[in-house]
C-alpha cells in the first residue's frame, strides 16, 4: 500500500476563512489569493471551493491563472506579478486575466499586443515592484494617449509591515497611496493583504486580497490563526511506524542532538524534510497523537522524525500523528523552526498526497 503520509485539506474551512475575510473587508470585495498552488493546498481545489463566493482570484503568474481556467472557473484572475513577455498580454486578453503592470517595459508591450484589462502597481515604500507615486501622472497620461486601448482597472500597492500592529509604516504607505491615486477617483484600488484585515480602521478600498488567512494560518506577529478566529485548512499527518524505550543517557538521531535524561518511550513517524517538514524544527516542537499534544525529539531526518510518547501512553504503531492541524497550529511549528506558516504550507512536497475533504 502507499505510504500513508497525507495532507488533508478541509475545503469548508477555506470557505469559512474566506467569509471571515469578506466580513472584515467591510465594503471592499475580497479577491481570493490562490498563488503557489493555493498556498500548497491545491489551486484548482481551492479555487473550486470558492466558486460562488470570490468575485476574483489572484495569482502570481500566467501558469497559475491558466490552471484556474482549466478547472472551468470563469471569474477574472489578477496576475500580481504581471507578465514576462509581450505575447502574454494577448493570452491575458483572451482569458480575462488582469495583469498588474509594474514597470515601463511592460507598459511598452501594450502597443504590441491585444490589451487586457490591467492594474498599475504603486511602490509606496516596499521597494520591490511598482511605479513611484511621482511617476503616476506621466504613466497614466501615456495610457490615456492610447485611447480605448488602455483598459486600466485601477491601482495596487503592497504593505511591508501590516503584520506588526506596533509599526506605523502601514499608515505611511496608506497615506502615500491615497495621495498618489487621488487624481483618478473612478478607478479601483487594492491594498489589503491578509494582515491588513486585522488592522483596526485600515481602509481596504474596493478590493482586498486575503491570502494566508484563507488557509487558517496567521498573518500577524505574535498570533496564531486560531487566535484570530481562523480555521486550519491543512492537517499534515503521518503514521507512527515504531515505538521503543530509550534508556537514560542514550541519544536519538543524527548528530545525537537529544540525549534522554531518563528512560523515555518514543516513536518514529514516517515524515521528514523530504516531505517538506522543516529540518530546523528540533526537540520540543509540538505535534499530536490521538488528540494529545506531544513533542519532537532530536533532529528531523529526510523521511522520519522522532517523538516523545510520554504524554501519550496509549499510542501504538499505526496511529496517526498530526504534525500540524486543528490540535497543533502550523504557526507554532513555524515559530519553533524559525520561519513562518507561509513557508511550511507552501513547502509540503509533491510526494505528500493532498486529500480534499
Automatic annotation (TrEMBL):
Signal peptide span: none
Reported cofactor(s): pyridoxal 5'-phosphate
GO CC annotation: cytosol
Residue(s) carrying N6-(pyridoxal phosphate)lysine: 35
Known EC number: 5.1.1.1
Alphabetized Pfam families for the sequence: Ala_racemase_C, Ala_racemase_N
Active site per the UniProt annotation: 35 (proton acceptor), 254 (proton acceptor)
The protein's annotated pathway: Amino-acid biosynthesis; D-alanine biosynthesis; D-alanine from L-alanine: step 1/1
Record family assignment: Belongs to the alanine racemase family.
Name of the featured protein: Alanine racemase
Classification lineage: Bacteria, Pseudomonadati, Pseudomonadota, Gammaproteobacteria, Pseudomonadales
Amino acid at each position: 500500500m502507499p505510504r500513508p503520509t497525507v495532507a488533508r485539506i478541509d475545503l469548508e474551512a477555506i470557505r469559512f476563512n474566506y467569509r471571515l475575510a469578506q466580513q472584515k473587508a467591510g465594503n471592499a470585495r475580497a479577491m481570493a489569493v490562490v498563488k503557489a498552488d493555493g498556498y500548497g493546498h491545491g489551486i484548482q481545489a481551492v479555487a473550486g471551493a470558492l466558486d460562488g463566493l470570490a468575485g476574483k482570484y489572484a495569482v502570481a503568474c500566467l501558469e497559475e491563472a491558466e490552471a484556474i481556467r482549466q478547472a472551468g472557473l470563469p471569474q477574472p484572475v489578477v496576475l500580481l506579478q504581471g507578465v514576462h513577455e509581450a505575447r502574454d498580454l494577448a493570452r491575458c486578453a483572451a482569458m480575462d486575466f488582469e495583469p498588474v503592470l509594474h514597470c515601463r517595459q511592460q507598459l511598452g508591450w501594450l502597443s504590441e499586443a491585444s490589451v487586457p484589462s490591467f492594474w498599475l502597481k504603486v511602490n509606496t515604500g516596499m521597494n520591490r515592484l511598482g511605479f513611484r507615486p511621482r511617476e503616476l501622472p506621466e504613466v497614466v497620461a501615456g495610457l490615456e494617449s492610447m485611447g480605448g486601448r488602455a483598459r486600466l482597472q485601477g491601482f495596487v500597492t503592497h504593505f511591508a509591515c501590516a503584520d506588526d500592529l506596533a509599526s506605523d509604516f502601514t499608515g505611511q504607505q496608506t497615506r502615500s497611496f491615497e495621495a498618489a491615486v487621488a487624481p483618478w477617483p473612478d478607478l479601483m484600488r487594492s491594498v489589503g493583504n491578509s494582515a491588513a484585515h486585522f488592522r483596526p480602521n485600515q481602509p481596504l478600498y474596493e478590493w482586498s486580497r486575503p491570502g494566508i488567512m484563507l488557509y487558517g494560518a496567521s498573518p500577524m506577529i505574535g498570533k496564531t490563526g486560531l487566535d484570530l478566529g481562523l480555521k486550519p485548512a491543512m492537517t499534515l499527518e503521518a503514521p507512527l511506524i515504531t515505538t521503543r524505550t530509550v534508556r537514560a543517557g542514550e541519544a536519538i538521531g543524527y548528530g545525537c542532538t537529544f540525549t534522554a535524561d531518563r528512560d523515555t518511550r518514543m516513536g518514529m513517524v514516517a515524515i521528514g524534510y523530504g516531505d517538506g517538514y522543516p529540518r530546523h524544527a528540533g526537540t520540543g516542537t509540538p505535534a499530536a497523537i490521538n488528540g494529545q499534544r506531544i513533542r519532537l525529539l532530536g533532529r528531523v531526518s529526510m523521511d522520519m522524525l522522532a517523538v516523545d510518547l510520554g504524554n501519550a501512553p496509549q499510542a501504538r504503531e499505526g496511529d496517526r500523528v498530526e504534525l500540524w492541524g486543528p490540535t497543533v497550529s502550523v504557526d507554532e511549528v513555524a515559530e519553533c523552526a524559525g520561519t513562518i506558516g507561509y513557508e511550511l504550507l507552501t513547502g509540503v512536497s509533491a510526494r505528500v498526497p493532498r486529500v480534499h475533504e
